[in-house]
Design a protein that fits this description.
GO terms for molecular function: diaminobutyrate-2-oxoglutarate transaminase activity; diaminobutyrate-pyruvate transaminase activity; pyridoxal phosphate binding. This protein is an alpha/beta fold. The two termini are 34 Å apart.
């Protein structure tokens, strides 16, 4: 049936094709379509809803702010909402970890934070080249897209995407292949044909790349290599930060400190647009207004982001993530993989992927995701050929809801394998 969506909305629309319902309400880990059907959320707005839909604690802060006629738009002017956010971010995040980061508020989405990071790195080092990794996703604007490895997505640029060299991520190679050693050889070889980069940008967990987790040892070696060669290290925390892995930043497990950190998605707490860039204070060489945007001061996001940080530590959410991870891993290992040895899984905290790439049937992951949706579970695919089922529930999910969702995944896998094998 023709709808206003298909009549007017561009073909670029994406997620609505996987979840073809009109949604009207949502609360914490549940969404409801206009007919009242309930769906459990294992998608979290692609990582923008770590604290759930309409989290009462965060929403109350927003409603109180609106009722008092708080500032709604102020570009980058000083406001009470911004001051509160910076105070709380410093108290809960920067000071306890001893990070000497400046905070830069970018445009409303994560890609703008990445654009700002690359722009600043080139300005600081006076070099044009950036190293990124195969399997990476950093955004869809031209600069960020140049760092994104998906060939089909890159074609959408319509022009060459220059000044980026892709290096091998530790995935898909023989275990003996030393990817850091490979990069080191390129940097030391005056006949490599590759310019020394200003920065290397990395996701500690390649989320869209198929939930591929870099080891702590690999990340430490990467940090050391950057130091030895005067290269800035940028960590993209847009999807795997804000507590997703059981620490506020995903890189904390490796004991490293990046030079620059991109944050977006759940930093706003309630799904409102917000992105920011953190960088070591010695790199704050911007001229006033050299990188700006009309919505770089999202006042409502400041309010919700402040409440979200308070909520995270008040509810001991980081420790809860570790408890839920243990339950999730136990379920996958004993209830799913024990019956399907061709499947693999990997992840950290509350981002996990079930990998169907070794199954001969090409679209089996698609079929499983579709069956999940029919059972009332919203779940996304990722990775090469979309062969990884990505488990990404809100961090506030209860163990009962987690079990319910995982059971729907198991039932869907059982049905698909029964029909096809």
């Amino acid at each position: 049936m023709e709808t206003i969506f298909t009549e007017l909305e561009s073909n670029v629309r994406s997620y609505c094709r996987s979840f073809p319902k009109v949604f009207g309400k949502a609360k914490m880990c549940e969404m409801y379509d206009e007919d009242g059907q309930r769906y459990l959320d294992f998608f979290s707005g692609a990582g923008a809803l770590n604290y759930g839909h309409n989290n009462p604690y965060i929403k109350d802060s927003l409603m109180n702010y609106l009722e008092t006629d708080g500032i709604l738009h102020a570009l980058d002017m000083f406001t009470e909402a911004k001051r509160t956010f910076l105070d709380i971010f410093k108290e809960y995040v920067l000071n306890p970890k001893g990070y000497d980061y400046k905070v830069m508020f970018c445009g409303p989405t994560g890609t703008n934070s990445v654009e700002a990071a690359v722009k600043l790195a080139r300005k600081v080092k006076g070099r044009e080249t950036i190293f990124a990794f195969s399997g990476a996703f950093h955004g869809m604007t031209l600069g960020s897209l140049s760092l994104t490895s998906n060939i089909e997505l890159r074609k959408g640029a319509g022009i060459p995407l220059n000044n980026v060299v892709f290096m091998p991520f530790p995935y898909g190679f023989n275990a003996s292949f030393d990817t850091i050693g490979y990069i080191e050889n390129i940097l030391n070889d005056d006949h490599s044909g590759i310019e020394k980069p200003a920065a290397i940008i990395v996701e500690t967990i390649q989320a869209e790349g198929g939930v591929v987790v870099a080891s702590s040892d690999w990340l430490k070696r990467l940090r050391d290599m950057c130091d030895q060669h005067d290269i800035l290290l940028i960590c993209d925390e847009i999807q795997v930060g804000c507590g997703r892995t059981g620490t506020f930043f995903s890189f904390e497990r490796a004991g490293i400190v990046p030079d620059l950190v991109t944050l977006s998605k759940s930093i706003s707490g309630l799904g409102l647009p917000m992105s920011l860039l953190l960088f070591k204070s010695e790199y704050d060489i911007w001229n006033p207004g050299e990188h700006n945007g009309t919505f770089r001061g999202n006042q409502l996001a400041f309010v919700c982001g402040s409440a979200a940080l308070e909520y995270m530590y008040k509810e001991d959410l980081l420790n809860a993530v570790k408890i839920k991870e243990e339950f999730l891993v136990n379920f996958i290992e004993h209830e799913i993989l024990s019956s399907y040895p061709l499947l693999k899984y990997r992840g950290k905290g509350l981002i996990y992927g079930i990998d169907f790439s070794r199954v001969p049937e090409k679209d089996v992951c698609f079929k499983v995701a579709r069956k999940c949706f029919e059972r009332g579970l919203i779940i996304e695919r990722a990775g090469r050929n979309d062969s990884v089922l990505k488990i990404l529930p809100p961090l506030v999910i209860t163990l009962a809801e987690l079990k319910e969702g995982l059971s729907k995944v198991k039932e869907s896998i059982d049905e698909v394998f029964c029909d096809n094998f």
